[in-house]
Amino acid sequence: MIISVAFALALSAALSQPPSPGLLPLPSPPRQPPSLPGGTEVAQVRDMTLEDETAPVRVPEPSEQAMRYYRSGNVLWFVEQGWSIAVLVLLLATGFSAALRNLARRIGRNWFFTIVVYVALFTAVTTIIDLPLSYYTEFVRQHAYGLSNQTFGKWFGDTLKSLAIACIVGSLVMWVPYLLLRKSPRRCRCVATYCIHHPGANEDRHQERTSCGIWNGR
After folding, report:
1. Which of 64, 72, 111, 174 is the most buried (most CB within 10 A)?
2. What's the burial of 107, exposed, middle or buried (CB within 10 Å: 0-12/13-18/19+)?
3. Sign of CA dihedral 186, 124, 118, 91
4. Where are the domains of the chain?
């Protein structure tokens, strides 16, 4: 009994004493808040941002080669439009379009398939006629200015693909305006004039030429 009381008194005395400083963990230093730039620095950053947003973008001066490409492209555009009109007038004036129509009638039998055959024949003919100009515009000129590394075989293959697409698309859609024109033949001259003065390029140009050729053959 006496031993138990003495042990309890010793334990309470040990607990009442403060712990030794070497046994406590060292406190971590307080974290400093991030430093913010002063008023002058904030103003400088704001001015730089506004200057970047409102300052005009500097455009480099075009090279002489780029200007030659631009000027020759403008001239070539007029040449293409004149060539397109000349080919159309030639095919209509010589009666070649009417000959294609008669051949399409013999092959197609009814009016719908006649248009399909005529579109295919007319598109193929105009593509062959345009081939020299297309070769210079799309192949020779692009290589001369270093804008293409396409081989002739690849270019010719793409031309044949464009021809096939033009024939398919023209055959699918060309019967719609022709059907409307059959019901309103007096408007033929107006629509033909529109086709002549608004020649398109590639597939659109072939479709417009085809329309005028069919109307001329009636």
Report:
1. 174
2. middle
3. positive
4. 81-217
Q: Give the single-character DSSP code of 138.
A: I
Secondary structure tally for the chain: helices H, strands E: 10, 0
Model pTM greater than 0.90? Answer: no
Q: Dihedral of CA 59/63/64/67: which sign?
A: negative
- Amino acid letter, residue 9: L
Q: Which two tokens stand for residue 68?
A: 């030659």
Residue 212 has pLDDT above 80, yes or no: no
Given CA atoms 214, 193, 170, 167 in this order, what sign does their dihedral have?
positive
- Residue 170 and residue 203 in contact, taking contact as beta carbons nearer than 8 Å: yes
Query: How many CB atoms within 10 Å of residue 72?
Result: 13
The residue-averaged pLDDT of 46-66 equals 73
Give the torsion sign (CA, 191, 196, 197, 198). Answer: positive
Whole-number pLDDT of residue 1: 53
Placement of tokens 């439009």 in the chain: 81
Look at phi and psi of residue 202 and say left if phi exceeds 0, alpha if psi is from -120 to 50, else beta: left
